[in-house]
Amino acid sequence: MATPADITAMRRALELAARGLGSTSPNPVVGCVILDASGHQVGEGWHQRAGGPHAEIHALRAAGVLARGGTAYVTLEPCNHTGRTGPCAQALIEAGISRVVYAVGDPNPQATGGADTLAAAGVEVSKGLLEDEAEAGNIAWLTSVRLGRPHVTWKYAATLDGRIAAADGTSRWITSAESRADVHRLRAETDAVLVGGGTLRQDDPHLAVRGIEGATQPLRIALDTHASILPTARILDDAAPTLLVVGEDADTRHLPGAELLRLPLRDGRIGVHDLLDRLHARGVRSVLLEGGPTLAGAFVRGGAVDRVIGYLAPAFLGEGPTALADAGIKNISGALRLDISEAVRIGPDLRITATPKGA
Questions:
Q1: Which 3 state secondary structure label does DSSP give 200?
Q2: What would the mean pLDDT of 60-79 be, rounded to a whole number?
Q3: Coil, helix or strand at residue 352
Q4: Which of 78, 115, 169, 279 could form a disulfide with 88 if both were Cys (CB 3.0 to 4.6 A apart)?
Q5: How far apart are CA 125 and CA 215, in angstroms?
Q6: pLDDT at 255
Q7: Left if phi > 0, otherwise alpha if psi is -120 to 50, otherwise beta: which for 28?
Q8: Which of 74, 49, 160, 58 shows the shortest CA–CA distance to 125?
């Protein structure tokens, strides 16, 4: 049974892991805390960037010789393979760690087996401490390993009657400055931000992260089937990398120098899973869907929405477009039902975070 000291150490490891959000892809976020043989914390670390030392290595370096006979708390099962870095399971053994507590097993077939290696070397190993919290914190990477595609969060802002714009098409600003700042935090924690052609034409979005010091800029993706984007579009500046996704026969001569991804059309549209497959192969593990109702509907219809974050403003419009369109839902029994995991105030607005039931 876990002791209060175990829980405190693992909770700290979870806090450390979260510091890597947005900068470790295509690797997971991982945190590690080491207590010495008498139960005092002597080292901690987190995976800071892909290709760099793993969380365990940072923590072991901080602990030094005090790690011998101690306990390591890790949010993900220590890896068992040599990639750009060595196997963490072996590093823990060589440091003399006597006990390892980890939260979530590693589903990556190339890296799993660390727990078995540790146990074979005589290290006491236990799994599952704060597993749900660790799963939630690493859900983008876990989804990518389990499903072979990026984790998709659909973000939208609407009034209480579900309108994302007024009848005349204006939408700035439905939600508050506090909510908009929170969206920049979401962008900073994700690999890619995606919009469709309608949003490009209507809003001319920029999509880069602002107001967060040291943030890694996400890949800005515009799904623009016929390459109708103007060369002066804000998304084409150099503030962040940009990928234009177009039909395979689209005329892009007016976009010299733009990075293009050409995909075949299915019934006149680019397939959601065709796109996600290519993004996954590129190393994208998380996507923030910021497009309009048509793009959101395509992802819902394709079963490719893993999380929904809605910012609801205390206002009514009565007319105007709604957040979701053409999702393939024909009756009430087909409604996309959600499990709400969080509802909090952001300035005057309400932010609701939910996942599709059964996801």
A1: helix
A2: 97
A3: strand
A4: 78
A5: 36
A6: 92
A7: beta
A8: 74
Cβ atoms of residues 218 and 240 within 8 Å: yes
Q: What is the pLDDT of residues 280-336, one digit of tens each?
A: 999 999 999 998 999 999 999 999 999 999 999 999 999 999 999 988 889 999 899
Q: Residue type at 255?
A: L
CB contact set of 59 (below 8 Å; sequence gap of 6+): 32, 33, 34, 43, 44, 45, 72
Q: Which of 271, 263, 264, 268 is nearest to 245 (CA)?
A: 263
CB 329 within 8 A of CB 293: no
- C-alpha–C-alpha distance, residues 286 and 249, integer Å: 28
Residue among 56, 77, 189, 290 flagged as catalytic = 56
Which of 2, 5, 11 is CA-nearest to residue 32? Answer: 11
**Residue 170, pLDDT score:** 83
Model confidence at 83: pLDDT above 80 = no
Told to judge if 56 belongs to the known catalytic residues of this protein, a careful annotator would answer yes
Q: Is the pLDDT of residue 195 over 80?
A: yes
Beta bridge partners, 283, equal none
Q: According to DSSP H, which parts of the chain are helical?
A: 4-18, 55-63, 88-94, 114-120, 131-137, 139-147, 177-188, 197-203, 272-282, 293-301
